[in-house]
Amino acid sequence: MYFQSFLHPASKDSTRKMALSGFLCVLVISGFGQLSATEKGKNEALAHMDSLRRSIDTTLNHRTLDGLLAKKFPETSWVDGRWVYYKDQANIQQLVKPRVSAVIPEYSFYTVTLTNYLGYHINHSRKLILFDSAKSRVIHVVPMWHGDISADLLRLFIGKTFPDSTSLLNFTLELHSLMNAGSTGGFENTTWHEDKVTFDLTYQGSNRKEVWRHIEMFIEDNKIKRFRSTNPKMNQWVTVE
C-alpha cells in the first residue's frame, strides 16, 4: 500500500510562482550588487582620469599662458630662491597698454602672483609677465624692488623710433606702469631733455618723499638708445643697452 500525495492545481501554481519570484529576487539582488560595483569602479576610474587630466593639463598645453607659467615656474622645483606658480593663487590679470603694444605688438601684458622661496622666507608677489602667444613664450619681469630695472623688459625697446616727441612721452608714461608692476612707490618728475627722458621712482621716507632710483632713457632723433638707473644714495648705476 502506498500513498500518493496530490496537490491541488491552484496550490501547484502558487508554489511555482513563489519559487519563480524567489529566483527572480535572487537574480535582481545579485544583479543590482554587480551593477553597483561596476558603476562604482567606473566612476572611480573616471574620477582618477579627470584628476590626472587636470594635473597634467597645463603641462601639456604649452601654448596657453597658464601652461607656460606652470612649466616655467613648476611646483616640483626645490631650488632655493625659486619662483613658483600656483594656479589657484595666480589671479592672472591682463594689462591694456595700447601705446606700448604699438611698439611691441607681439606681446600681451599680464600681472600674476608668484611665490618666492628663499631659505625660510616665503613671499607672494605680483609680477609682470609678457606673453608671446605666437611663439609660445613668456618673459618674467622681476620687480624693481627685487633688484633694479629689468634688462629683459627694456631691451625690447632699444632701437625703437617714434614719429615725434609727443608719442615718445606718451609711450614713456605707459612704460612707467609696466616697470613699476609689483613694486611700491611711483614714478614722478618725468622731464624731457634734448638727448634723454628722465624720471624718478620715489618712495615715502620718514619725513618726505625720497628718490629710490633716477631713471634716464637716452634718445637720439626720437630713437631709444639705452636706459640707465642710478641709486642716488649709493651712487651706483645699472645700464641696459
Write structural notes for this entry.
There is one protein chain. The protein is an alpha+beta fold. The chain folds into two domains: 10-60; 65-240, no CATH class. It has five helices and ten strands. Strands 1, 2, 3, 4 and 5 form a five-stranded antiparallel beta sheet that branches. A five-stranded antiparallel beta sheet has the order 6-7-8-9-10, covered by helices on one side. Strand 9 and strand 10 (236-240) form a beta hairpin. It starts with 8 loop residues before the first helix and ends with a strand.
Mean pLDDT: 80
Q: Give the overall shape.
A: globular
**Which runs of at least 5 residues are low in confidence (pLDDT < 50)?**
1-35, 50-62
The helix-strand sequence is: HHEEHEEEHHEEEEE
Whole-number total of structural domains: 2
The N- and C-terminal alpha carbons lie at a distance of 124 Å
Number of helices, where a helix is a run of at least 4 consecutive DSSP H or I residues: 5
Q: Strand tally, please? A: 10
Strand content: 25-35%
Major sheet size, sense and barrel closure: 5 strands, antiparallel
Q: Would you tell me the structural class of the helices and strands?
A: alpha+beta
User: How large, in whole angstroms, is the Cα Rg?
Assistant: 35 Å
Helix content: 25-40%
